[in-house]
Amino acid sequence: MNKDFKSLLDENENFLEVIEAIIDEHIEDKKFSSKIIEKELSINRTKLNKIIRETTGKTVKNYIIEYRLLKATDLIKTGIKDLDEVAKKVGFSNGSFLKDSCKKHFNKSIEGF
Fold first, then answer.
1. What is the pLDDT of residues 56-70, one digit of tens each?
2. Could you tell me the pTM of the whole model?
3. Residue 44: CB partners within 8 Å, gap ≥ 6?
4. Distance between CA atoms of 45 and 81, rounded to whole angstroms?
5. Cα–Cα distance between 76 and 60 in angstroms, integer?
């Protein structure tokens, strides 16, 4: 299912909602990167980085990681306790990497959300 994210951006004032829709579309893909966002929106890396930095204060890479981590915490709240399963659903290679990333980005354990 490939959405026309460029037209969605044209009709939507909230750039981050469009970025999040793209991330959601590829959430399980471990190789997902800003290059896919750039391609989907037909914008260059510099423009994407500038918009994300000005809007969130984060790099694109960190924004994607933190978005995935928040999705992981949502899955845990729904009752999925196997961190390896959660990790795969949000594009991390395993539960250990998911835990380490959460600690690094939020200074909290994944279970602490």
1. 999 999 999 999 999
2. 0.86
3. 38
4. 36
5. 24
